[in-house]
TrEMBL record:
It is a multi-pass membrane protein. It comes from Nonomuraea terrae. The lineage of its organism: Bacteria, Bacillati, Actinomycetota, Actinomycetes, Streptosporangiales. Keywords: Cell membrane, Membrane, Transmembrane, Transmembrane helix. It is found in: Cell membrane. The keyword Metal-binding does not apply. The chain crosses the membrane at residues 74-95, 142-162. Residues 70-223 form the RDD domain. This is RDD family protein. GO terms for cellular component: plasma membrane. Its main location: membrane. It holds the Pfam family RDD.
Length: 233
């Protein structure tokens, strides 16, 4: 019986890892009771076979499986809240550029999200073909070379890992939203990061939101990663 108890606990725990929110504890409790009854009847193996893999069993408990994607306006508000570090750095770059223009008559370039470029020795790698030749970013110093990468690290990796943990970020928690897979399950950490990689494209990241133009509530990367943002229950 001890071995069966371990099997039950292990299975319910693995099922719970695929779920987020209240569904996780509900699934573990109901499955634990069901499998315990099956074990007492000598039918534990048959019950596990019917349930299938933990991910398959979890899908039957996914409360958000049939929930449609959340409205875009609510998502935009959550995005602004989540990316406040990136917004703050961009505003700081704007102010710094204006000051230098007034004081020294130098022009400056600015985009949101900011362009990303890397200097390698005498070479330069950038998404924007002209960025490496634009000296307008040189005035930013540490604000651009350190502030922008750190802000992007938070926006891509930090928020992506938070979404993988429980589907929530600060902005989504405030707006009562949650990220789940198309089956309503918890997303993988790699998926959480990948669905945010468009930010590395600078202002071209807005292309990711192009489906909004024709009324789609899912970004391009939402579809590529098979995820959706829904209203949390």
């Amino acid at each position: 019986m001890a071995d069966e108890r371990q099997i039950i606990d292990d299975y319910t725990e693995r099922v719970g890892r695929h779920l987020t929110g209240p569904a996780r504890e509900r699934a573990k409790a109901e499955l634990g009771e069901h499998l315990s009854d099956a074990a007492e009847a000598g039918e534990l193996d048959e019950a596990l076979s019917r349930l299938g893999k933990p991910e398959e069993a979890a899908a039957t408990f996914a409360e958000l499986r049939e929930t449609p994607p959340a409205p875009v306006d609510v998502r935009f508000i959550a995005v602004v809240i989540d990316n406040l570090p990136l917004v703050g750095v961009t505003i700081a770059l704007l102010v710094q550029g204006i000051v230098r223009t007034v004081e020294f008559g130098q022009g400056f370039g600015l985009a949101f999200p900011p362009w990303v470029y890397f200097e390698i020795g005498d070479g330069c790698v950038a998404i924007g073909p002209m960025i490496c030749n634009v000296a307008a970013y040189d005035h930013a110093g540490l604000l651009y070379s350190l502030g922008v990468p750190l802000a992007l690290l938070w926006s891509i990796v930090g928020l992506g890992l938070l979404e993988a943990r429980n589907g929530l970020t600060p902005g989504k928690r405030l707006m009562k939203l949650r990220v789940v897979s198309e089956n309503g399950l918890r997303i993988h950490p790699v998926t959480g990061v990948v669905r945010r990689l468009s930010l590395l494209l600078g202002p071209l990241a807005w292309v990711d939101w192009a489906p909004v133009v024709w009324g789609d509530r899912r970004r391009v990367l939402d579809r590529l990663t098979e995820t959706k943002v829904v209203r949390a229950k």
